[in-house]
Amino acid sequence: MSYDLQPNILPSQIPKLPDEVFQQLRKFIYERTGIFFADNKKYLLESRVSRRLTALGASTFSDYYGALMNGAGSSELCHLINAITINETFFFRNEPQFAALETSILPEIIEQKRKAGINKVRIWSAASSTGEEPYTIGLIIKEKLQPRFPSVKFDIIGTDINTQVIEVARRGVYRDYSIRSTPKHFLEKYFTREADSFIISEEIRNAVEFRQLNLFDRDAMKLMKDFDVVFAANVLIYFDFNSKQNVVSSVYNSLNKGGYFFVGYSETLYGLSQAFKPVHFDKAIAYRKE
Ligand SMILES: C[S@@+](CC[C@H](N)C(=O)[O-])C[C@H]1O[C@@H](n2cnc3c(N)ncnc32)[C@H](O)[C@@H]1O
């Protein structure tokens, strides 16, 4: 879903973000979320945070930053995060990854676990936005894997730092944009159409659990354990090198030995971590914890 967080503010109505406040604000955001606004993204921060000025009744960015510092309530941090994250996503976004998951990765993991007497497989979509990615995994499992492996229990968890997108994900109601790459068969079988909306079936909705989680919250990350597959797709691009390394090492700890890590099509672990072994599939790479 393209989750448009922009209010109707004309560019001429947006107050100017002074350089000094830009530096303070981006440091504040970086330290809490890992998201780094480079100099050429100043305009983006300016336009996205401007609506928070209106909400708090601050007339300048300086006033807003002061309010943030003086604890305009910890709730303001949540609003700020919701305003600045980019939540672009859609069903079957990176199809070759899901094909690899279905045909190679999950059958391999299930077989290993069967030998060890375990019949549970855990999958985590770690920047799930409005839910399309974990629901795609749910659709594939329901349609292709569960019939082959009826005794296996699949846990699918979707997390995101943005509380608004988690609410949208839990509702499971989508527009054309989200379903544009969804195979017809899945659309007909697992969605109900109501006016302009596509509502995901209850069985798929119930198959995914959503929670708010910041990838930089060390304590919360320590609780994310025993996963067999982790997707952190199209989120590393918003981080600088240190933040990326930090997240990759947390994901490593969250994975079981032999588990797989997927990043976005334009992202790579090359130069970030040698702890994973890249495994090549047809038009997709996954990183295996050895
Ligand atoms: C572009 S979306 C990617 C959605 C999906 N993974 C996909 O590939 O289609 C990036 C998501 O990362 C989330 N995000 C950004 N920083 C985060 C953080 N520190 N912890 C958790 N989620 C974060 C954003 O809120 C956003 O929903």
| Strand order in the sheet with the most strands | 6-2-1-7-8-10-9
Shape: globular
CATH topology of the largest domain: Rossmann fold
Distance between the termini: 34 Å
Q: What is the tally of beta strands?
A: 10
Q: What hetero molecules are in the model?
A: S-adenosylmethionine
Residue share in helix: 40-55%
User: What fraction of residues sit in β-strands?
Assistant: 15-25%
Number of helices: 12
CATH level-1 class of the largest domain: Alpha Beta
CATH level-four homologous superfamily name of the largest domain: Vaccinia Virus protein VP39
Q: Which architecture of the largest domain would the CATH scheme give at its second level? A: 3-Layer(aba) Sandwich
* Biggest sheet details: 7 strands, mixed
Poorly predicted segments = 1-8
The helix/strand class is alpha/beta
For the record, the count of structural domains works out to 2
